[in-house]
Amino acid sequence: MAVRKPSRPRGSRGKKAAAAPRHRRKAKPAKTRSAPSAKPRPDAEAAPEEVRGDVKLQKLLAAAGFGSRRACEGLIEQGRVTLNGKIAKVGDRADPKIDEVLFDGERLGREKPAYWIVNKPAGVITSVSDPQGRPTILSLLPPKGPRLYPVGRLDLATSGLVLLTNDGAITQLLLHPSLGNEREYIVTARGEVPPRAIERLQRGLPLEDGRTNPCEVARVRYDPTSDTTQFHLTLREGRKRQIRRSMQFLKHPVKKLVRVRMGPLRLGRLGPGEARPLRRDEVRLLEKHAAELRSAAPTRRRQRRG
To answer: Candidates 3.30.930.10, 1.10.101.10, 1.10.540.10, 3.30.2350.10; correct CATH number of 115-278+285-298?
Structure first.
């Protein structure tokens, strides 16, 4: 006959359960949630940042079209961003659905992506504001519309295509120095630029801030009547006044400079001072181009290391 072992007293199990109930241990992390007014979610740890409410401020600013994340960090350091009434710091996080984030006193919100191109005339500043009161690129846009920012700059004397958008992600890709987004210009230089000078320009020139990258030159034509040489120049970098400094180095200073293309976008028949939103097919081309720049970035890094 088998001997039955005595069962464990229920009292001891009950005391142990009362001392450390499992439901209290699970509920403990909920006390440290950043949004106490929000209802706890069982899948909160697997949710994206936007659901958990811990998005970095520079990411929110970039998504709202204020530029790249690095540029947005600079805006935060300037004290132009407040979080729930207090001046924000780089590294602060917020939930846009709960927290109040203000930029220059205006509430931050995610706007629908918008894209415009402008044919900037000479004498217009490629900036959203100017302390000297000069006309800015925004003065060429309709008065009522989304908040837009120029993608890069053209100097005061240069005219041509400027893209304006509130899409911070695309802005960052188009301006990233290592991704090689193309900008095409029509250059009118003084005098007859010889083939040797054109070849030097294509190979790269030793300017004061370093040697320029190789570029493409096409459609070179000399006009003896005006004693000028006109050609198309395509760059994959965007140094300050690079073309003007390069031609000055070659002793053929620029007389006129017009940007006619940026990535897949072309100036076309848009007149000086005119602006228009991108067509749907142009937006698709721009998004495809941005995706190609993003996917090509790791390949370029591996090539440089090799």
So the answer is: 3.30.2350.10
